[in-house]
Structures are given as structure tokens and as C-alpha cells.
Amino acid sequence: MFDIYSGPVFGMARQQFLQAADILEIPQDQRDRLLYPKRAIAVTCPIHRDDGSTVVYEGYRVQHHLSLGPAKGGVRFSPHVDIGEVAALSLWMSWKCALMNLPYGGAKGGVRVDPYSLSLKELEALSRRFMQELIPFVGPHVDVMAPDIGTNEQVMAWFMDTYSNDAGQTVTEIVTGKPVSCGGTVGRREATGRGVTHTIVRAAEEINLNLAQSTAVIQGFGNVGSVAANELHALGVKILAISDHTAAYHDPKGLNIPEIIAYVAKHGVLKGYSKECLTDPNTILTIKCDVLVPAAVERVITEEIANKIECRIIAEAANGPTTLEADAVFAKRPEIFIIPDILCNSGGVTVSYFEWVQDLQQFFWEEEEIISRMKKIMDKGFYDTVKSAKELKVSNRMAATCAGLKRVHLAKQARGLFP
Predict the structure, then answer these.
(1) 96 marked among binding-site residues
(2) Which pLDDT band, with edges at 50, 70 and 90, does 297 fall under?
(3) Do 339 and 333 contact (CB within 8 A), yes or no?
(4) C-beta of residue 356 within 8 angstroms of C-beta of residue 176
(5) What is the pLDDT of residues 98-152, one digit of tens each?
(6) CB 21 within 8 A of CB 95
(7) Measured in Å, how far apart are the chain's first and last C-alpha atoms?
(8) Three-class SS of residue 194?
């Protein structure tokens, strides 16, 4: 059934769903409606390259459900994007928004392209064309997009401008993660990384770990990983190793995070920062530390790696970084406290919600208020998850997934079906 949603990422999300559905005792005849997306859109995006040639890129947008409000989720530009991956990410977004009690359904989008192969002019052309093709299917009360891997504030500004030109008026609330200068909110860029660090603080309290005397390893040094590194460094955590798609560095004495962040701000990537600290990126997840932060892509923690990991806390800053086989290993390793992705990285969508609300009412808050509100919402999600895990005797991941799935299920039941 629904063979278009194939591939290992959707297969993983589907198995997580089935496990949670069994725990919640959801009837079999109601499961497909909860699992499969409401709508999946595939578009072609032709653009003129700088050399005058025409190239066509594939784009997707999957809206998992709209039962709690408009669909919400990021757009990634990556050469590995496919509709199965995007559908899985939309499913995780549904659970995440419901877990955080936000009035959204989950969505996700993507274009199969290497954004680093495009000039700025070509990137703008692709961004605008993608939004133009999606205009019939999105809107401030239908589907609100945000940045993800390979996209940023500038891409969101182009999305917003393209939609606004079609509407004949400025519609800032069509996307979140925009520059502050055109309707974005202060604190949005840092929100996901800050949220990751906040959940690490709460997890450390749970297991009596003194963060000021702790060490951390961060895989992925994009927007999320770099902000989390900076926040942890400020708390006194020694960052032993970091990596991105270009390089990996390891120093047992601790890396100079402010210096590295300044280098990446200038050069865009980690490559070239140091020769002395270079290490094998394939071993970064198994470096002994107190806090491990996978902040890159899906399915990086495999069964083999799970058996080799030496840490106290795994903070899943990326979406779906842990395979089902690895989860089975962690079930036998209670000494590792896992902060599941739909909880750990929910700071981004929480502050995106704040941005959307501010745009709708055209009244903006101070950054201090935004951070405070984000932490309050994330605290409730964290403590509810930990409490539920203990009561149900399940993993933190299953507890968080069950909480999100239950809310979506109840909403769909209450709204019913057209006769």
C-alpha cells in the first residue's frame, strides 16, 4: 500500500509508528489514516544556470495532516532527498508538534540538489521556482515552511517574497525562519541549538551529571550543531570533537569553539581549520565522552556504532539519527540517557510557532521573552516524556512518540470523516 513511500527512512518511521500504535492499542482500521500523509506533492523546478543552460530539479512537499492546524515543517536542499525521506520527516514533525502541544500538523519539503554547486543567483532562481510551484498548496493557514538542511534565512526570504508577489501583498506569516528585517523573530536562528542544550541540561539533572566538568562530541556543525556547541561551551562543557561534511577534528584537551565558529562564519565549512586535530569522521560517534550530539542527518547511529558508543547522554539534534537496530541495543544499555529527536530538537519549531504568531498579529516580542517561553514549553515536553517512560516502562523515544501520536489520534477521532 502506498508504495511511493519507500526507502529505509520511511521504513524506520513506520516501525516506530507501529510500536507506538501497539502500546496505545489503536485499532487496526484506524492506523493507515494516522500513518500515511494527507497530501504529497511532486514538482519540477526548471531554472537557467549561469552558463545559459536549462536544468530541471525535482521537488517535494508532504503534508502529513492538518487536523490540529496548518502543516508545519522545513525544506531541505540536498542531493539525497526523496519522497520517502520527506514523508518520514513529515511524520516525525507531526509527533513533534503534538508533543509540544503546538497547533500544527507535520510537513516537510525538499529539492534534490547540491546547494553548494549553485551560485547565489541560481540558488535564488531555484528557491523562487520551488515556492511558485507550491503556491496552490500552501498558505499561512494551510502549510507554513521553514529552513532545514541546505536552506537558510535568505531562502525563506525568497520564499516569502515570491508568495507575497503572487498574493499582491506582503504575507510574512507564510514562512518562518526569515531574517528579522522582513518579519522574522529574534532568536529563531539559534532556537534549535539552544533547545538541544536546554534538554541536555535537564537530562544531566536527571542522571546527576555535572555539566561544568563534562565532555561532549558533536557530529554536524551546521546551524544546530554550532549553536549547541557554543551553548555547551558557555556552560563549561569541554568539546572534544566536532565534524561536518568536509572535516572532523578531535582534541582530548578540548577544542576552541569560539575560534572555530568564527572560522566557519568566514569560510562556510570546517575544512582547513586545522591539520593537527584532523580525525577520521567515521569514528567521531564512538569517541568517549559524557554527551554525544548527533546533529547531522538520519540513520547515522547503527547497531555496530551503538555497541561502541561510550557516553552518558545522547542528544538527538538531528532527525532520526538512530536506527531501529541501534535502539534495540540501547534498550539493553540503560546507562545511556537518550533525548529523542522529536523532543531534543523541538526548540526550532517552537520558536517558529512564536514567529508565526507574531507575524499574524504584527506584534513582536523581545528575545528574553522568546527564550523563556521556549524553555517553558520544552520543560513540559521533557518532564512529561520522562514521567510517561517510567509509567509505561518504555524508552524515552516511545514515550515521546506515544504522546504525540495520541494527541493526533484524538483530534482525528473528534473531527471524524466526511460521510
Answers:
(1) yes
(2) confident
(3) no
(4) yes
(5) 999 999 999 999 999 999 999 999 999 999 999 999 999 999 999 999 999 899 9
(6) no
(7) 23
(8) helix
Do residues 200 and 229 make contact, with C-beta atoms less than 8 angstroms apart?
Answer: no
As a whole number of angstroms, the distance between CA 317 and CA 345 comes to: 5
Q: Quick one: CA dihedral 282, 286, 290, 292, positive or negative?
A: positive
The pLDDT score that the predictor gives to residue 419 is 74
Instruction: Please give the Cα distance from 76 to 60 (Å, whole number).
Output: 10
Same domain, 13 and 160: yes
Catalytic residue (one of 108, 238, 375, 406): 108
What is the pLDDT averaged over residues 74-86? 95
Pair (227, 153) in one structural domain: no
Residue at which a domain ends, from 280, 311, 344: 344
Known binding residue 72? Answer is: yes
Confirm whether residue 256 is marked as ligand binding: no
DSSP designation for 296: S
Residue range 16-66, pLDDT digits in tens? 999 999 999 999 999 999 999 999 999 999 999 999 999 999 999 999 999
DSSP string spanning 76-126? EEETT--HHHHHHHHHHHHHHHHHTT-S-EEEEEEEES-GGGS-HHHHHHH
Q: What is the pLDDT of residue 298?
A: 84
Range of the domain at 17: 8-172
Q: Are residues 259 and 115 in the same domain?
A: no
The CATH number of the domain holding residue 233 is: 3.40.50.720
139 and 24 housed in the same domain:
yes
Counts for the chain of helices (H) and strands (E), in that order: 14, 11
Task: Choose the final residue of a domain: 320, 344, 368.
Answer: 344
Is 251 found in the same domain as 157?
A: no
Residue in the block written with cell 557530529: 219
Q: How confident is the model at residue 275 (pLDDT cuts 50, 70, 90)?
A: confident
Q: Is 108 in the active site? A: yes
Residues 23 and 161 in one domain: yes
